[in-house]
Amino acid sequence: MLTGEHLWLVGTSMLFAVAIGLPLGILLTRRPKLKTFIFGSTNIIQTIPSLALFGILLPLPWLGVRVDRLAITALALYALLPIVRNTYTGITGISAPVREAAVAMGLTSRELLWHVELPLASPVILAGIRVATVITIGVATIAAAIGAGGLGEFIFRGIAMVDNGVILAGAIPAALMALFADFLLGGVEKLLASRQH
Questions:
Q1: Contact (Cβ atoms closer than 8 angstroms) between residue 38 and residue 84
Q2: Among residues 131, 147, 150, which one has the least CA distance to residue 80?
Q3: Cβ contact 54:145 at 8 Å
Q4: How far is residue 157's CA from residue 82's CA, in Å, rounded to a whole number?
Q5: What are the Cα distances from residue 106, in Å, to 76, 109, 112, 117, 118?
Q6: How far is it between the farthest Cα atoms of the chain?
């Protein structure tokens, strides 16, 4: 049950993070002037301790009503930086001759993005999603502190009881989940990279 809650928190927050981070990264390649503001904001979020971020978001009307919403929002915010950064880096890292050849073939800006830039940048983008997922699995354990559930409940219960067995009952599955996600996404990343060679 707690493992299912943990997976749900991570999965939902990652969906939001990708849905926000990917367009933001693409936007930065089109509007470089926003780079300082967006990278600055996502960097600042990363530096805020997780419990403090939950506390900052708590007074917000729609979020504070339900702890799961609060946890998902905080986790999605934490996951943004690697997704935005890698999307931007992946697209801007495409060599100029490739871009010029696509434009010479008559591709519009949108076609260039969908048919050239995103496919070529996909291994780098996925690497960002992979890092964000592993971070989110770890930070999601803190969500139990505000009553959002997940494997962190075992960890906090174990700390309160001074029982290492209970702590490990939460820590080991969370670590295994992070390792599995890293292995799975790493495999997909290698597959995408190999298709480009």
A1: yes
A2: 131
A3: yes
A4: 31
A5: 38, 10, 9, 15, 18
A6: 68
136 alpha carbon, distance to own chain's centre: 7
Give Cα 197 to chain centroid, integer Å. 27
Q: pLDDT tens-digit profile of 65-89?
A: 688 888 999 999 999 999 999 999 9
Would you call 63 helix, strand, or coil by DSSP? helix
Q: At what angle do helices 164-195 and 118-139 cross, to 10 degrees?
A: 180
Q: Give how far Cα 195 sits from Cα of 16, 120, 188, Å.
A: 28, 10, 11
Residues in the chain, total? 197
pTM assigned to the model = 0.91
d(Cα 120, Cα 197) in Å, to the nearest integer?
Answer: 11
What is the token pair recorded at 166? 């209970």
How far apart are the C-alpha atoms of 134 and 116, rounded to whole Å? Answer: 28
